[in-house]
Automatic annotation (TrEMBL):
One of its GO terms (biological process) is phosphate ion transport. It is found in: Cell inner membrane; Cell membrane. PROSITE patterns: ABC_TM1. Keywords: Cell inner membrane, Cell membrane, Membrane, Phosphate transport, Transmembrane, Transmembrane helix, Transport. GO terms for cellular component: plasma membrane. It comes from Methyloceanibacter stevinii. Residues 262-478 form the ABC transmembrane type-1 domain. Belongs to the binding-protein-dependent transport system permease family. CysTW subfamily. PANTHER family: PHOSPHATE TRANSPORT SYSTEM PERMEASE, PHOSPHATE TRANSPORT SYSTEM PERMEASE PROTEIN. Its main location: membrane. GO terms for molecular function: phosphate transmembrane transporter activity. This is Phosphate transport system permease protein. It comes from the Bacteria. It is a multi-pass membrane protein.
Amino acid sequence: MSTFTILAILIGAGVLAYFIGRMRSIQVCGGEQHKLHSRPSYNGYYLAILTALPAIILFAGWSIAERPVTRYIAMQELGPKVLQGTDAEQALTMSVVDTIAEGLPQLTSEEFEVLRKARYGFVTTSDARDVLSRHSVVLGSDPERSVLAAADELASARATSRLIMPIACFALAALGFAWGYSRIRPELRARNITEAVMRSGLFLASTVAVLTTVGIVLSVLFETIHFFQFVSPFDFLFGTVWDPRFATVGKAEGQFGLLPLLWGTLFISAVALLVAVPVGLFAAIYMSEYAGSKVRAFAKPVLEILAGIPTIVYGFFALSVFGPLLRDLGFNIGLEVSASSVLTAGIVMGVMIIPFVSSLSDDIITPVPQSLREGSYGLGATQSETIKKVILPAALPGIVGAVLLAASRAIGETMIVVLAAGIAANLTLNPLEPVTTITVKIVSQLTGDLEFNSPQTLVAFALGLTLFIITLALNVYALYIVRKYREQYE
């Protein structure tokens, strides 16, 4: 029985239990619902929860535990040579065991008998390999007898598990239903139980998000510590040359200087903010102070469409249109401009983050109390003077928060930089030359054929942790400023 079918049956049983529980509560009170502690719907939820929730939890736990438990059972058939080997050797052997075990259910009884004979030495393992190859189970060499035994045990354990699991889940659902049905009485506090379960579910949902963030940070942190066992933190943080070279596992060849990548990230982000902040802020001032309601209702959503365009589209635009255009313009005025440069990536990225600045700034400028405007007009100030002297200073903390959020978005951007800025780690002040960023190097270091434990791969985690700290600091500071602004006017 498939996973989807089991889940569908359990959910369907829960829905059915809801209606039965509802009817049961009305029945036990003789139709006089005012005698019930909880409304009939809460009694329905109570019975649905007891029917479906424990069974679904059992199903989830069983599904999570099935793979490690069955693999542990199968590994007991492997010889001490494999069990005492390295993790990599065990993983390689178990991948062969998995491949054979997946193919066993496709064999006929005669073919399966050939594999059993090969397992016990009555025929050669080459015969078993030939049988498996007829069912698209391709092996690089003749399997060892212990591998065939482990595959047999693994397939058997999986089949047993998948037979017992639905029976156990459905039995638990039936027990939950019977117990809950017998407890439905007028005095049953079904509402309290239902709300407690829902509160627990909401708590778990919020905990999942927090634990996911903590898990990501810890995984990056541990791999970064592993990287610093090969490369000095001082050389990484203050090195001016990025030139990691291929080396065997356990050795660091080349130089892993962070500064060229950090400079490229900040340089492109600065150009992007020089484009996005003035345009976005002026657009916000126009929409909040000058535009009519109809113009505002039309212009704001249209401007926010820019934020919904995939960044790869911006990258293609920069690569195929804007970069060559800048190069040709530079050639006409005697400048050597690379098609992939800081200027190309920065301007296109600035266009991308204009909605972040304009929309957030508009949301902050609009709620500035009207009394401030009227007071300024009453003193004889014009509208432009009121905006400069009253509105913008009042909204400045929120605007700064919007700019910082846009900056963190620019620092973390990848696709535009890959296509428009190049991949050269160049420590330069010339915006017409190509540079690269931290995000681009993270991608390039993780997509090669290098060993995962090599410094050339582990450096991606150190770069990721650096980027995480920078963006986290910007976001925390931005949120601090925005909250301070909100407290001022609420």
